[in-house]
Design brief:
By secondary structure, this protein is an alpha+beta fold. It is built from 12 helices and 11 strands. Among the domains are: 55 residues, no CATH class; 151 residues; 85 residues, 2-Layer Sandwich (Alpha-Beta Plaits). The protein is elongated, with a radius of gyration of 51 Å. The N terminus is likely disordered. The strands form 3 sheets. It has a 5-stranded antiparallel sheet with strand order 7-6-5-4-8. The protein has a 3-stranded antiparallel sheet with strand order 2-1-3, with no helix packed on it.
């Protein structure tokens, strides 16, 4: 039905000398509006100027509800299309994943990011087709631009993680000789971290460039990039040093994941390598966190640099009556009974014989550091038990020999001596006389002498 809208126009007659009187003239105009809602131009005869106030809308609810319904319907359709497309792709990959490992890894890493990206693009397209008019199209477009950039960055980052998982599946580290696999996995981990960091930085920059103000600020920033780069370089000098050291560790093959190292007098394994720090899993389940530049500036021991096989020593300090030949036979016998020994080296040597002890050194080999530690403990325990049971005289002991010093012999008096060193000296009788005159005097039985009385 037609809607009646009242509009008022103020007409200023040309040549009027009283603006207030002319302003009091009002003209009421009735217009009939159909589909258009905008102001209707008004022409007044004899007046070149006329101002018309915008009409008052009374049909807003009737116009907004259909638009909201169409938007909701478009969004639902877009979401359904995205979900169906994702399900179809996942179904195809699952059928392939029954025969291929990469398909299962791809589904696990990219299922959710790919679905979010499809839903974002579908909803954006649906809203672009249904919403029109300012200011909503510009705001909606900017929001979905940023959301699409974020979802795309998520997909690309997940793709790098998928490639790392694929490499880890191919190069496994649970084998006997895993040095090459550990080197490749270390490099893949560092490359993945660098790539993901670059994707995040690019996504943030692209999101900021959707704002015109950010573009202006970016141009100003580029103009002063020289000074800012110097300031930023000085402020982040330590962080940049660690980042470059992390990349150097990845490609110089100095350390790898699962390497056995000794750092700060601690024995442990390399558990994690990042661009800024390295985590060492110590033997007692502690974690030692060191900056990456530590491994490029400080000396450390890497027991698995060229291979995982190691040689270890067991030393025993025993008595001089030990029989090395019998111990050597017992060593060969006990090594044949254990799987810890890799059958490469078995040596028993006497390396020292000073200080009242004989030092026996046993050299054995194992396939890796943990196995070598267990083998050394096993050899030490078995040899100590064998010594107690079969050769107890070889156990270490301290010897102390007690001797009484003899009495000094009589010294004959030399002729021509005018005065002896002592008054009573020279023979046994003289010593007795000297003891009688120089010993203690017993006064208990000596009678007391009475003194004469004083006048």
């Amino acid at each position: 039905m037609p809607v009646r809208v009242k509009a008022r126009a103020t007409v200023l007659q040309a040549g009027s000398t009283s603006p207030s009187a002319d302003a009091n003239r009002r003209l009421s105009i009735r217009t009939v509006s159909g589909a258009e809602c905008g102001p209707t131009p008004v022409r007044v005869a004899g007046s070149p100027f006329a101002s018309v106030s915008p009409p008052e809308r009374t049909d807003v609810p009737e116009d907004v509800l259909p638009v909201i319904g169409s938007i909701a319907l478009a969004v639902v359709i877009a979401v359904v299309i995205a979900v169906v497309a994702t399900a179809v792709v996942a179904l195809v990959l699952r059928s392939v994943g029954k025969r291929k490992t990469w398909a299962r890894l791809l589904i696990r890493r990219l299922r959710i990011p790919f679905r979010v990206l499809l839903m974002t693009i579908a909803v954006w397209a649906a809203l672009a087709a249904t919403v029109s008019g300012d200011p909503w199209p510009g705001l909606v477009q900017r929001v979905f631009q940023i959301a699409t950039i974020g979802a795309a960055a998520w997909v690309i980052g997940s793709l790098f993680v998928f490639l790392e998982d694929l490499g880890a599946e191919r190069y496994r580290t649970d084998t006997a000789d895993n040095r090459r696999a550990r080197r490749l996995r270390t490099q893949m981990t560092i490359i993945r971290r660098v790539a993901v960091a670059a994707v995040v930085v690019i996504a943030i920059g692209a999101s900021l460039l959707t704002f015109p103000e950010a573009r202006t600020a970016g141009a100003s920033l580029l103009a002063s990039a020289g000074v800012l780069s110097i300031v930023a370089g000085l402020a982040a000098q330590s962080s940049l040093t660690n980042i470059f050291a992390g990349m150097q560790l990845a490609f110089s093959d100095a350390i790898r994941l699962d390497d056995v190292v000794i750092v700060e007098t601690e024995w442990g394994r390399i558990e994690e390598i990042t661009l800024t720090y390295v985590v060492v899993h110590l033997w007692d389940d502690r974690r030692l966190v060191l900056p990456t530049n530590y491994f490029t500036t400080q000396p450390f021991q890497n027991w698995t640099r060229t291979g995982s096989e190691l040689l270890g020593a067991v030393e025993l300090d025993l008595d001089w009556r030990v029989s090395p030949e019998q111990m050597r036979e017992e060593l060969h016998r006990m090594l044949e009974e254990t799987d810890l020994w890799d059958r490469r080296t078995s040596v028993l040597q006497v390396t020292d014989a000073t200080g009242g002890f004989v030092r026996i050194r046993v050299l054995v080999t194992a396939k890796d550091a943990p196995t070598l530690f267990d083998l050394r403990c096993y050899v030490r325990e078995r040899l100590v038990s064998w010594l107690h049971e079969n050769d107890p005289v070889a156990l270490p002991r301290q010897r102390v020999e007690m001797e009484r010093e003899p009495a000094p012999a009589a010294t004959p008096r030399r002729h021509g001596s005018s005065a002896p060193d002592n008054l009573f000296s020279g023979d046994e009788r003289s010593n007795e006389r000297g003891a009688m005159f120089t010993g203690l005097i017993d006064l208990r039985d000596t009678p007391k002498r009475e003194l004469p009385p004083r006048d």
